[in-house]
Write a sequence for this structure.
């Protein structure tokens, strides 16, 4: 489910702006750390849940406005990707500078701690809550994209940004919004996920890789793709870890390779953009 | 910004006119270097030369064929581990031989073969998807290295790699000293550079450039572009493997970091900063990026941040790299 | 000389029937023009023949051989050369380098990785000859992105010619050209050897009537009329399409 939230953000940013945001993972980590600091300062998990995405999303807005925007127009997609890579590097280093290099484990909020018996297994409440939250978020996002006007604009932009701009809608605002939203989603995932994944330097990249695999498998640019991709990869991961722990990671990539061979644009993806 | 660019352009013209003299100078410096330089600097230079080979191999793929690979460390690290496995005296490895006559062909063959295997899947995509796929495949190899501790030594890697030997029977020489290793790497560097230059200026090299410029048109002319991309991928991988091998022979240790994305990222930064599509750019980039921490860390602790910022600056303002600036090209749009 | 044939070709894009059981044959050495109003299906027909698009049904045959399943590059290697409606060149390379890429393939030397490309004198000379033929020799060292539109169009043809095709397919060669440029292009095409079978998709009537041996008129994906230029010109249905309401 975590993966889904991450994948949704990444996929949207890609679909809208044809940019693969390699700093997406960094935003996850940043969100997590900001959330951690917020909890430490304010003592409240729920507040952190709101603050972190807002702050990080704002940072995303700034980045989009001042850096990414310079690379619009023409076929400069590769350079955009490189830019996000540079950002990821800088962010990674700065994060380490500010929060240290040790592994920080984060406790889930008191309300959701503990385990409950489910089908004979003791299941952590927090993970259950996460699944519920993930599903709720998926529903929300779907409703937003499918039913609201803004959602329609975003989806139209995924197909053809120029057209949307031609219709008189301020495409820059849309781009900025999408980028900020995607970033905020990543940060949200960071805050929620911290109790499960812990926080440490290097996590940003591990999460990024998994997210990329999900997005590639599920298909770029669609929410459905992000959802089913996350589900598929998540299951592969779980089963892999359970039965062949040494090769679970390998299994995930094998799934990706197979999907690529059969359907290069992902299971539910739109035409894979190239160049 | 413009002023800097113009000045660099002038430097470029100056350099271009005195090319012969500069070659001679480099030649002399290159030969005399180990006898005048401090050991630490010699080690750094060896690293720079190794990474120059690595960068040139990626340039063939990215700069000339237009395939943005973010997983080139896969081949670099593979070369490291293959030679480590063959030569290392650690209990995990075979410890068979460290004779270059044996190891070089094996390393290059294995990396080329793996490149073909990966390419078979990855080359069906292009552009950004290709970037992500190559990244993922490289991570796959990394995860194998980390998890399969029985063979690869896990996160400890393979220590105990001896310095290489060259020759047969009584006529063999072991490059134990740092100075001798420098000459070995220099020789490999010059040979790689020479070979890659020939490849790049051959009809095959021009086919690759055609793929970069307009693959669809090339297919309309009758080229089976997939085959050429596979070939480029394999050659590129082989040279990367060679570089990896040379690195670990020097440090006597192969570690998973050789396969990690940071290594892929490093070489990519080297290419962008130095300039893609020109082998010289790769060499310059390797030098600049490899020496960067050394130059910066006396003043500023967070050299990684600085390097990231430098990289961003180049991406935004000088996407053709240092070589581009020297040639007097400027990015008109960004300025 | 070669023979190109299209049999019962249909192509549907979802609900839109772009081509409806189109059959035509281009005789060896013939210059065959395809005309029709916008949306008639000319481009679709062109793309199916070249291989850039796949038909829904029907087949394409070249010298008696069914090529419907072959990829673009395979058809090119059989001798089917084609140009593009919108300039599709190697923009970052020079004019000479562009044509040389085509020449080196024709001479089957692109596998060579050791000798420099300049050392293949046959390739170099032929590229120069082609450039001279289309009148681009003075431009040979200029980067394509700097060329005038008409010159780029000429380069399009040069590229296709350099592969020594048996059948040349031209997609609106005079698209977007001024009258002067059009006249030059017509002359260029007119001077091409008669042994080269040609199929030209065009809009410009004057061009058609000065170059074509036979004309086929498409309308809404179907053939309305086909025959010698004078016949077609006098055909009432054709007149209705072009002059009628």
């Amino acid at each position: 489910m975590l993966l889904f939230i991450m994948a949704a953000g990444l996929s949207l940013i890609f679909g809208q702006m044809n940019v693969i945001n390699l700093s997406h993972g960094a935003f996850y980590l940043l969100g997590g750390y900001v959330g951690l600091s917020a909890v430490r300062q304010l003592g409240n998990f729920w507040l952190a849940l709101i603050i972190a995405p807002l702050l990080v999303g704002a940072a995303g807005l700034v980045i989009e406005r001042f850096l990414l925007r310079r690379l619009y127009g023409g076929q400069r997609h590769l350079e955009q990707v490189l830019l996000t890579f540079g950002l990821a590097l800088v962010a990674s280093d700065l994060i380490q500078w500010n929060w240290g290099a040790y592994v920080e484990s984060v406790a889930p909020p008191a309300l959701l701690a503990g385990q409950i018996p489910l089908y004979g297994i003791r299941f952590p409440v927090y993970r259950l809550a996460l699944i519920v939250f993930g599903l709720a978020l998926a529903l929300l996002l779907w409703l937003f994209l499918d039913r609201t006007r803004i959602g329609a604009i975003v989806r139209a932009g995924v197909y053809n940004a120029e057209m949307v701009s031609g219709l008189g809608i301020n495409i820059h605002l849309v781009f900025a919004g999408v980028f900020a939203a995607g970033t905020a989603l990543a940060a949200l995932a960071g805050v929620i996920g911290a109790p499960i994944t812990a926080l440490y330097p290097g996590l940003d990249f591990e999460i990024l890789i998994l997210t990329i695999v999900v997005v590639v498998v599920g298909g770029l640019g669609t929410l459905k793709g992000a959802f089913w991709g996350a589900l598929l990869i998540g299951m592969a991961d779980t089963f892999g870890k359970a039965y062949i722990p040494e090769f679970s990671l390998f299994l995930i990539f094998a799934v990706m390779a197979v999907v690529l061979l059969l359907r290069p644009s992902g299971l539910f993806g739109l035409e894979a953009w190239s160049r | 910004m413009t002023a800097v660019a113009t000045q660099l352009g002038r430097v470029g013209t100056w350099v271009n006119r005195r090319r012969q003299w500069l070659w001679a100078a480099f030649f002399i410096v290159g030969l005399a270097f180990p006898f005048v330089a401090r050991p630490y600097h010699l080690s750094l230079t060896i690293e720079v030369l190794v990474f120059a080979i690595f960068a040139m191999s990626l340039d063939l793929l990215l700069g000339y064929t237009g395939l943005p690979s973010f997983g080139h460390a896969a081949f670099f690290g593979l070369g490291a581990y293959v030679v480590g496995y063959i030569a290392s005296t650690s209990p995990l490895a075979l410890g068979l031989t460290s004779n270059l006559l044996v190891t070089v062909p094996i390393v290059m063959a294995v990396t080329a073969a793996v490149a073909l295997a990966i390419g078979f899947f990855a080359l069906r995509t292009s552009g950004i998807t290709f970037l992500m796929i190559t990244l993922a495949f490289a991570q796959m190899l990394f995860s194998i290295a980390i998890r399969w501790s029985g063979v690869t030594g896990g996160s400890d890697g393979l220590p105990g790699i001896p310095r290489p030997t060259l020759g047969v029977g009584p006529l063999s020489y072991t490059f134990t000293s740092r100075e001798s290793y420098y000459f070995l790497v220099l020789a490999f560097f010059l040979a790689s550079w020479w070979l890659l230059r020939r490849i790049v200026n051959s009809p095959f090299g021009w086919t690759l450039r055609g793929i970069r410029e307009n693959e669809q048109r090339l297919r309309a002319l009758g080229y089976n572009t997939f085959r050429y991309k596979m070939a480029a991928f394999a050659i590129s991988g082989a040279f990367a493997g060679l570089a990896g091998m040379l690195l670990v022979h020097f440090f006597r240790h192969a570690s998973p970091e050789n396969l990690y994305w940071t290594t892929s990222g490093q070489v990519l930064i080297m290419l962008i900063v130095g300039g893609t599509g020109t082998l010289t750019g790769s060499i310059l980039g390797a030098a600049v990026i490899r020496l960067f921490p050394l130059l910066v860390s006396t003043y500023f602790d967070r050299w990684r941040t600085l390097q990231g910022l430098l990289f961003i600056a180049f991406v935004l303002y000088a996407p053709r790299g240092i070589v581009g600036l020297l040639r007097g090209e400027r990015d008109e749009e960004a300025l | 000389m070669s023979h190109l044939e299209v049999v019962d070709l249909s192509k549907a894009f979802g609900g839109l029937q772009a081509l409806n059981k189109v059959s035509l044959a281009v005789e060896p050495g013939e210059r065959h023009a395809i005309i029709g109003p916008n949306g008639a299906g000319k481009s679709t027909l062109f793309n199916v023949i070249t291989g850039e698009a796949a038909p829904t049904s029907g087949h394409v045959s070249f010298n008696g051989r069914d090529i419907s399943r072959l990829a673009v590059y395979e058809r090119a290697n059989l001798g089917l050369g084609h140009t593009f409606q919108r300039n599709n060149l190697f923009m970052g390379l020079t004019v000479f380098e562009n044509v040389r890429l085509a020449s080196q393939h024709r001479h089957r030397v692109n596998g060579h990785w050791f000798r420099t490309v300049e050392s293949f004198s046959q390739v170099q000379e032929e590229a120069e000859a082609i450039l001279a033929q289309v009148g681009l020799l003075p431009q040979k060292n200029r980067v394509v992105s700097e060329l005038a539109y008409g010159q780029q169009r000429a380069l399009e043809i040069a590229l296709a010619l350099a592969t020594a095709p048996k059948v040349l397919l031209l997609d609106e060669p005079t698209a977007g050209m001024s009258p002067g440029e059009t006249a030059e292009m017509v002359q260029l095409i007119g001077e091409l050897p008669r042994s080269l079978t040609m199929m030209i998709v065009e809009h410009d009537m004057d061009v058609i009537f000065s170059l074509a041996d036979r004309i086929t008129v498409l309308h809404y994906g179907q053939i309305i009329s086909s025959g010698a230029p004078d016949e077609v010109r006098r055909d009432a249905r054709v007149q209705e399409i072009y002059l009628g309401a």
